[in-house]
Amino acid sequence: MTLRPLAPSLRGLCLFAILAAGQAVAQSAAPETPACKGKIYLTFDTGSQSQAELIEQTLQRHHIKATFFLANEKTIHGDYSLDPAWAPLWKRLVAEGHAFGTHTFDHVYVVRDLPEGKIEVRPQFGAQAGKKLQWTPAQYCEEMKRVDQRFQQLTGHKLDPLWRAPGGRLTHNLLKAGQACGYAHVAWAPAGFSGDELPSDKFPNEMLLKKSLDGLKDGDIFLAHMGIWSRQDPWAPAVLEPLISGLEQKGFCFATLREHPSYHHLFAAGKEH
């Protein structure tokens, strides 16, 4: 019996069926990406900057975006974290999609509230370092915006409308001053305190790692620093990598504060600070 060749239209239908079947098999064989069981929001404050590159490389390796709070702090190189020498780092982090907030330019601690909305403060760095000063809300606003101005000079980009008071210390007047300046304050969850400022002889890295892995839950904001002068056994090399890996194994994903339920409205419809 002589077989007739299929008509062009039938050949097309057969080919389509074969390709569709092959695609279905490939899709069923491909592993599915597990859904996030929750999100953790990693945040890093400036510090001695001894761990800055390590933090950047670890985040790159895990394809994680974090949020950085910047102050002009003295670094292990004898300069300051917002000096031009640090511009390449900040530019890379901007290009990699991280978020950025102000931590006050001179890392200014609040001491107490004063009458008429004023605030007693104590800068850690700068010309007034260690002195107790009486500031108006406008003066504190200017201090927060100094970081934004320098960041734009270094990177060409603005900060996000986020801030964190040094030490996480807040007063009623200070919170109102930040709000009037257009910044939303960001604290951290109880389980999100990394402990990297604590003495390593009393709080070894193994203890801090276990505390974080056991305690962190969906929506928590996590705090660490880009280097701490006083800790003899640095936190970042020993804890950061296993912490991220451990949280990933638990099904957690990571995001910047631009996606956090308490702050994402600040970025709706491309709203800029």
From TrEMBL:
PROSITE patterns linked to this entry: NODB
Q: Which Pfam families match?
A: Polysacc_deac_1
Q: Which GO terms describe its biological process?
A: carbohydrate metabolic process
- Renumbered to this chain, the signal peptide range is 1-26
UniProt keyword terms in alphabetical order: Signal
Coiled coil (residue ranges): none
Report what the protein is called. Answer: Peptidase A8
Q: Which organism is it from?
A: Herbaspirillum aquaticum
The taxonomy runs: Bacteria, Pseudomonadati, Pseudomonadota, Betaproteobacteria, Burkholderiales
